[in-house]
Structures are given as C-alpha cells and as structure tokens.
Give the backbone structure.
Amino acid sequence: MTTFYRPSGRVPATLLPVFLLALLALLPLASAYVWLITRAPLVINVFLAFCYAGCVGILASVVAARAKVRNPEWMRRAGIVLALAAWYCQWAAWIAVTSVRESPQFAGMAPAGLFWSTLADPIAMARFMFELATSGSLHLGQWRVPAVVLALIWLGELGIHVLMAPALGRMRAQQPFCEASGAWAKEITVPQRFAPLDDEDVQALLDDPAGLARHLHPVPADAADYAEVLLYRCQEKGAYLSIIAIATHEGERGRSEQKKTLLFEYLRLDGVDLDALLARWAAAGQGAQEQPVPPALAAALARLQDDRYAEALAAAAAHTGAADPALRADALRICAIACSRLARWSEALAYWRDLFGEEDSAHNALQVATSAVMAGQLALGVEWIEACSARNASTRDMPAMQILTAFVTALGHAGERHAAMPYLEQIRQLYADLGNTDSTFLHLRGLPFFSAFLANTRPFVHAVLGDERGREWYAALGPSLDAGGRQELDAWLQAEFGEEVPH
C-alpha cells in the first residue's frame, strides 16, 4: 500500500458524453466572450482573455469531476482538446461579429447564423485570419498592427488556454477517489489553524501518519503564520491529508500578504478516528482562541485597550484572588500586561509568575524570563528562559526562534549585551544548520531574513567583540551558507567593517 494516494487510472465511458456537453457549452461561452471584447478597451480585453481561459479550465475540471475520470494524463489531453476547441470557437464568433459589423457583404445578417457557418468552415476561417494579418486593416487607434505582432497576440491567447485547461483538468483527476463507494472523497478544510511545521515535523508526520494528533497543534485563529489542514474523506473507511504552510509578510505597499506553500498532499491516513480527532481539534481551537472576557473584567479590558494602563491595573487587581480560576487568570493577565506597558518590571514579573502558576505555557514562561531581565534579575531570567525552552520542546507552543529573539531583545534593552552572546550564537547556528538564506525559506521556518539577522545583531557583536573579532564572528558563517548567502555576507562585511586587513 502506497503512502500517498495514487489515481487508479480509470477512464469511465461517461467521459465521452460529458465531454461532448462541455464542447457544446463552449458555444455560448465563446459568444459571450467575443461580445465583451468587441466592446471593451484593450486593457480590459487582456483581463477578459484570462477570465475566458479560466472558465474553460473550470469546464475541464467539471468534466473530470462529473465523469469521474481518475486518469490525470487523459484529462490533460482532454483539456488540450477543450482549449483548442475554445480558441477555435472564439475565433469563429469574432469573425462572425466583425464581418457583420464591418463588411458590406454581410450587412444585416444575423451574427448567430454567420457564426454557425463559419464554425463549420475551418478553411475559410484560416483564409480570413491570414488576410486580416497581411492586409494591415486591423488598427489600434492610429497604429496599424503588423502581421507578426498580431500572430504573437493570437498565439499568446492560445497559450493561455492550452496551459490553464489541461492543468485544471489534470489536477481534478488527481484528487482522491473512493473506489469502494464510487465517489470522490469529500474535501474538508479543517477550520482550526495549526502551529507551523518545520522539516522535522513534516518528516515525522510522513513517518507516522497515525500519530496525526501528536504532530499538529491548534493555535489562535489570528495567528499570522500557520499550517492549513485539508482532509479528503471517503464514505467507507479511508482518508487522505494535505497540509499548506501559510506565512504572512509585509508586501511592497505595506499591506499584509500571504505566501502559501504546499508541504505535501494526499497522505494516506490509516487507523485514525477522524470524528474524534476533529472534535478534539475543535475543542482545542476554541481554547486557543480568545475567550469572552468575564463581565467583572470588562471595564479593566476596555481601559487596557484605550492605553489607560494604570486604571486597567487598578480595576483588574481586585480580581487576582478570585475563586474562579478563569477570572483569576484573566485578571492576572491584564495586570501583567499593564505593568509591562508601564515599565513596572518588578510588578510585571510577579504577575507573570502568578499567571504561569495558573497557565503553565511556554508563552507565559517567556514573559517571566523577559520581565526578570528587564527588572534587573538576570540570573532569574536565564533560569526561566531555560524553563521556557524545555516547556516548548514538549508542547511546541512557539517557534524556537521567537523565544530566542524575544529574550535577546529584552537583554539588549536591559543593557546585558554580554549575556546575550550565547543566545546570539544559537541563532547564528540555526542559520548555519539551514544553510539556505532564501527569504521565503527562512520566513516559513520562523527565522528573520538574513539581512535582518545581520543588522539586528551588529550592535551586540560590536559592543562585546569589537570590529576585528566581530568580523570573525560573522565570517564563521560563510562556509555553511549557500552562494547567495555568502555573497550577501561578504558585501555586508565589507560595508560594515571595510576591507579585511591581511595578517
């Protein structure tokens, strides 16, 4: 039995009638497309061409689904035929509309009638297109369109069809099909978001699909970076799994953009109770999401959100000894956040420690560690960051890099740059172990861009090691990096430290 789903390769006899119906559907689709492009500006026509090709692609996907074709190669070929037919139909419709509008010979004739006669005469169509291309009668404004340019436009339009329709048809035929029930597997998009998966997580999941619950951990619904889970479930026993990594980053115009990467698709799941698992994830997801604030803390939360931190602290402090554990934890959380915003670090430290007693998460342990450092208790901060890392190793609440960078940032604010160096070396080692400095690759693994690593660590390294030893500290990365990373590192070293002085 294969680990991943493999299509059976079957091509039911129903493909022929369904495909013929799809060809008939092209006739009104092509007519509507030509009606639009003959009335829209040129810029809009480019968009309409992609829309038309997309509709043909969707039609190919519908053919595969309705005919239950489980042979991707056959559907690729069927998609090519459908794309060529769509291109042919649109040209027949365009010739009919253009002839009725511009040729005295066909004046007053119904475009529909000319469309059918043109459709049935491919030789006449080819002659018309050749004459149009070589006559120079086609203009865009005052510019006559040369034959070569016109031919390239036509071929580009054909290329869009030939790329899209076969691809969509093939993709549909590749989706899991339940041979026992004779139906497509039901696709389920799990509503919960899950913690991002690194290469080790993915490999562990591939090695042990039955341990799905151990490898996927729900995170809050507003998590920026997460894994999306798709399940394909059969009526009988049997299911398949696909996972997509989604990373949010700032786009060129300052807007948030998402990068989606397929980690794997259609992994076979055997021996997994999906009903129990989905129920468990739903419960965990609800727990991970922000819960309704108890009425007793509504005023405190409102003041916290309005940046009235002292008032929020006073309102929430009265409930830190409440008998209700949920009320007590929420009150401690508001007090801890308010004290942190007020830079009252000793008080923040006390509240975060009390909150950890209520909720022993890696996130709360990290807050204790950073607050301890900011309160001037370095040894206590080191103790708690080690506890945080140990806790996170078992729960995987947070990316390891997030823990390290948060702690290093706190050390920097506290002026403890020497104490930060061991953690910076851990971060440096993560880049060395990966070797790949591609921005997308790093972002998906929760690491800052390589350029950000260099810029953000520079003040620490300069203060602790100086220029000469600092240069050596960075240069030690070189042999472990890819070509692009080495080039970026060399350029940065020269800009920051100048030319290397030979010894």
